[in-house]
Design a protein that fits this description.
Layout: E1 2-8, H1 12-34, E2 44-50, E3 57-63, E4 67-73, H2 83-100, H3 106-123
Parallel strand pairs: 1-2, 2-4
Antiparallel strand pairs: 3-4
Length: 124
């Protein structure tokens, strides 16, 4: 399974903070792609992270046979928030978004969630 993460920022400080934590997302993308998922039900999981107030929580925005795309609204960003806190909120949002997708193999689903949650704990 391929994981793609993109950022849509309204606040330039949110965008800068997301660029600082981007290497952690790259590590996570590699870890997810390295998982031996027997039949996840789709090939691509695309995640959009935003600070847009109109986006609230996780929402599935696109689904087809090979791709699931979710938009994760992280809420407003405060300049006093640490990068670790923002990373933890981002990964928690990804876990919530993955739960909304229709994963056919529950064992694979649990493995993928465990990877995301372990990453969250190690970073937070």
């Amino acid at each position: 399974m391929k994981l793609g993460i993109s950022i849509a920022s309204r606040d330039r400080f949110f965008g800068k903070a997301m660029r600082r934590i981007r290497p952690a997302f790259t590590e996570l993308e590699c870890a997810i792609e390295a998982l031996d998922l027997s039949d996840p039900g789709f090939e691509n999981f695309l995640i959009g992270l935003t600070d847009d107030p109109a986006a609230d929580g996780a929402e599935v925005v696109f689904t087809d046979a090979d791709t699931r795309q979710v938009m994760i609204g992280l809420g407003e960003y405060s300049r006093t928030e640490t990068d670790e806190s923002l990373l933890a909120r981002s990964i928690a949002g990804m876990v919530e978004g993955l739960r909304l997708t229709d994963v056919e193999d529950e064992g694979d689903f649990r493995m993928l969630l465990a990877t995301l949650e372990a990453s969250n704990k190690s970073k937070g």
